[in-house]
Write a structure and sequence with these properties.
The structure holds two protein chains of two kinds. Chain A is an all-alpha fold. Chain A has twelve helices and two strands; from the N terminus they run H-H-H-H-H-E-E-H-H-H-H-H-H-H. A two-stranded antiparallel sheet of chain A has the order 1-2. Chain B starts with a helix and ends with a helix. Helices cover about 75% and strands about 0% of the residues of chain B. The chains are: A mainly alpha, B mainly alpha. Chains A and B meet through helix 4, helix 10 and helix 12 of A and helix 5, helix 10 and helix 12 of B.
Chain lengths: ~300, ~325
Amino acid sequence: MILLLEQLLNGLQYGVMLFLMAAGLTLVFGIMGLINLAHGSLYMIGAYAAAWTQQQTGSFLLGLAAGLAAAGVLGVALEMAILRRLYGRAHLDQVLATFGVILFANEAVAMLFGRQPLMAGLPRWLAGAVEIVPGVPYPLYRLAIIAVGLAVAAGLYGLIAHTRIGMLVRAGATHRALVGALGVRIGLLFTAVFGLGALLAGLAGALTGPLLSVQVGMGERILIATFVVIVIGGLGSVRGALAGSVLVGMVDTLARAYLPGALRGVMAAADADALGAGLSSMAIFILMAAVLLWRPRGLFPTHG
Amino acid sequence: MVETPRQVVVLLASFAVMAGLPAIAAAAGRPDFVTLGSQVCIMAIAAAGLDLLMGRTGLPSFGQAAWFGLGGYTVAILAAHAGDGSLPGWVTGAWFAWPAAILVPAVLALGIGALCLRTTGISFIMITLAFAQMFFFLFVALKAYGGDDGLSMRRRNALPFIGPRDDVGFYYVCLAALVLVLLVLRRVWRSRLGVVLDGIRQNERRMLAIGLNPFPYKLAAFVLAASLGGLAGALHVNLFRFASPDLLHWTQSGELMVMVVLGGLGSLWGAVFGAAALVLLHVFLAQWTEHWMIVLGPILVAVVLLARRGVWGALGGR
């Protein structure tokens, strides 16, 4: 029971992380119709910038700021240099060009920082554990990630539902051309939305540093899980991204925690662990297939 | 699809070079050219299959590497079981193992394709990638078949007249397979199926209005592409006598897409030239610098942004 509570929190934490990625990706898709594979590279860049700055200065907060800044600045530069030219193009072109960007980014990071993973530590004020219910300690840092993620979700909701920019974002998602025709500087709006997505990816990367090792290729792992989230949630829907993130985070975490144990009941321990590990990494894809059978356009389909 | 005279000349010249490659390699004292040639033929088979789906039907699958890997693992796993005596030795004969390597991906593609084709556009790209990733994780976790470390094959599948160590003979097998695949695909391109696929790419709603249900046609293209991916994977694993999860890595899917686009989307022959260009570029850049991907990435971006018709279109001269 206690283990279950911990695993549910772990699932929520992973889900929140996925949401930070999925929100940016789905907004960019919803408004610009752009599929950006290099979103994972921005996550990696955020993680590297944060971990490296933290190693140099010893400050977690400076690292976090560096991660956000690096992902934001490089994201905007990427949009202005390359992606802007891809908005009207076929999805295939977008996939291939951003695939090229990934290859470049991975290799550039490997040349700058080497292939050895970077390690980022936790500051003392976040390293402890708190008792969520009496007798059950849970790492403070993971709770902090959950809090940050939920705050971002609330902030995004406020931004999109209650501000002028949010109104333009919503309008752009349904009638892109009309918004431009009404005199909105659509290029600026696109760059701003892309920059916001890049910042969120950088935030996710910087926050991940102390939990996982920071290494080349980390971006693609989370990118593919993020795709699953977006397909489940419905392309272009931020609400869908939130629901999909939490669902995928939970299913992945719970499958990893319980599947090997459940299989041990029916087969030898070593086989059960190996098969369980395989099946649990497949769990989210099976979930996606099931959702698509039931609702081909995802849980929260958007129009347009 | 009608080739221009210039394209026919280029095709014949390319075929002559390919047919004479072992002699050229021997004269140049570079036996590695033969392996390179086999690699080009193998990737061209997978890319040509993908072009049917991507170029002709307009369904960009980001999961072609899954079929490549499944075909490869099929022959490697059959060989492993024959090696420890749990299966009879004849399963390692090419007459059995290669059709199996085509059939296993084809059957899986029938189910997975039916699911993927419920989506369109960008979701289709994402869901094919996700399914490929699912198989990738499966093979990483299958410790019985090597897991992360991969699975080596002691000897190639037995072929009549060609010894297991005969690299030149194996090259000609790959070349023959490629030519056969291309001739079959060229017929498919011009068949009723191919024309319907072309119509689906141009305007699916209009095909519905004509009274054609696009779904079975799209599924047929999906399964055909997967079968050819499986054949290519089987040949690849035979060439290097080694299968690993890297075969199914998502970058492999991406590279296959790049080959198709580089050669010229929907042009069939283009896939061969795209495959050759990318395989040779790899080798050339890798000799030059260990960080060859930092060069390949920008080349890709430039190709997508600037060169729309691909190598084959440029050869056409129109």
